[in-house]
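ok so I'm stuck.
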Amino acid sequence: MKMIRFTCLFFVIIFLLTAVFGGIIFSLTPKVMAEASYLSAKAMCVMEASSKRVLNSKNMDTKLAMASTTKIMTAITAIENCDDLDKTFEISPKAVGVPGTSLYLRKGEVFSTRDLLYGLMLISGNDASVAIGEHISGTISKFVDLMNKTAKKIGATNSHFDNTHGLDSKTHYTTAYDLALITSYAMQNPTFKEIVSTKNAKITNADGKTRYLKNKNKLLNSFDGCNGVKTGFTDDAGRCLVSSAERDGMDVVCVVLNCGPMFEECSRFMEEAFASYKLYDLTKFYNLPSEIAVTNGRQESVKIGTFGKYLYPLTDSEKESVQIKYELVKSLEAPIEKGQEVGKVEIYVGKDLHFSEKIFTIESVRRNSLWQKLFDVLTEW
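replied:
not stuck anymore, here's the structure
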């Protein structure tokens, strides 16, 4: 009897322990898995496009292969250096049979640069990248030099391009930060933005043969506000994704390099950015007087103002730390010219100076001379 009671008590204890600790383990498992997924990108960078402020990052300055996200640089370089995107040209033999993803271009086919840009960015045609580069610069080496010069102009100083398509090469690399910077720059171009936000397109060669293109970026269909940009994969680079989205006037660019769940992580990072930050024009925080006193003038005051605009993403707590400081003359003696400098204003977020601009008069004021008074009296009389 005692043995039966002991056995029953043993199983009850085992059951309770299993229920308690098993429940704890079960409740922790999704969180641990989420964290593991959250950190799976080898490098990442989330950037607000207009201010270039980094909102989130991991290893963002590490030089890595970037696969077909290279084509972001290929496309913006071509757009900026092509006189007529709709002018057609023949495909050369060098653009035929390029390894990797392809439009399956044929020698002698005739396309416009614009059509090939859709083939480049929607389905990642490596052959399209070569055809575009040859057409713009004459040779691929010259076009790649142009890509590198464009990168330096943008400020992407830790990047180097060896080719137009992103196939692996030891000296073909970028960083998550540089790629976010390049993309933020490219998205300011209306043609680039229109192409990368297109979900489906068709392109037709001069012989009337049509190719139907479907964008590989799944976030265009699943993430609210998504408007680009480019997927990529090679053995060295792993899975790479650059995405962009716009909500309430704020544009966010997310780069993940060597990231298995690239769509999931990009979605999560951008969602967090939109939840945490809002874009403000900090010049709206000004508390400047609208006018200052005038001596010896035909009016007692002159209107003043500023002309700047400063967009910057802030969290709610950062918004509370915005401070406006200004220096302003107390009065002016007439005559006063419109556009005359009268002071300056500075915007601080916490202790950091973010923006400074001059304050100007926005109207002119004549001097109130004796002759002017006499003229006014006579005119009134």
